[in-house]
Amino acid sequence: MKYIIVLLALTLLINGQTTCPKYQCKLKTQKFTDNTCVVYSNNTYYVSPCKTGYCEVSFGSLNSTCISSTKTTYETNMYLPGAKCTINDDCLSGICSKTCQGISKGKTCNSTLDCNPGLYCLNSQCTELITTRLNCSNQYSCPYNSGCNVFNNASACIEYFSLEPGEIVGSCSENGMNLLCKSGYCGINGEVYVCTDEIESVSPRPYYCTLGSTCYSKIDQKIGVAFSQECLCGLNNLGTPHCNIFLGDYYGMKYKEKLIKWVRSDSVKNCNTYARIQPECMKDWMNINDYNEIMYYYYLFMYYPYVAEAEDCVLENYVQDFYEAKNDIDTDSFAEIHKLFISIVLIMWF
């Protein structure tokens, strides 16, 4: 969560500029004080990862320093029922017994955030999630693998990413996304919203763009329009802007694949229903390899312009979750290539 907030702050800072700043590893000729992790000079941020603690990132033309604390104020008292915890202050409920404890079935609640995993707040009582398709109030009242589709005063729980192109949905978000659609997107068709085909960028990877321009998808045949994304500055060493990408692009498709696997798993049921697709819930209940995989593609889909073509030292300071996931993916890939190489050598030898 800490690193996502950093990226959102960077959005406000660097994307009102006419040129993008550069981020690169500290030069060998530069001397940093022991606790300095970022030095700013001439529109370039020179970065040296912290040996302990983490880099408390400053913005604008300020330098940044390492601090020893690993927990920040906005992370305190934020864990929902079902989340792993160590002390009572970790939990929204104020009660920790290895996991944050919430309100049980049939007991009084003010919000679904109060209820234990598998429950939602209905008429001020924690109630089991809906088991039938009909009469849902919102997606968090549905089973963990489903969301609520409301249309013509009727509602039903529909499995995520299951509705075919052309099928009707009750609403579309401002950016055109709807996780009930197989593509993840929808748009207006006549007087109703319908699911689209897969939405992918016109531009090829690595999705370069001109700062201030708009990035477009290919035109969808179901609704006859293209979707748009922003062209944003990022954390790379050339100051090159990139387009935000779509769910139909490679990294979006990989993220969707991992997300579908997660919401259909038994592990997600350990989380409060509001936390079903939150990274914190995944970190608690996924095995480490699966977690690193989904986080790798999550960042590449959600924050592509920021992490694209960035140096490892920069990622380690600014987006440590992604840096750790990337390292795990790279290590696994190298191990697979090494095993393949050994197999080929053995076949040729014998």
Automatic annotation (TrEMBL):
Signal peptide as annotated in the record: 1-16
Keywords, in A-Z order: Signal
Name assigned to this protein: Dickkopf N-terminal cysteine-rich domain-containing protein
Organism, as annotated: Stentor coeruleus
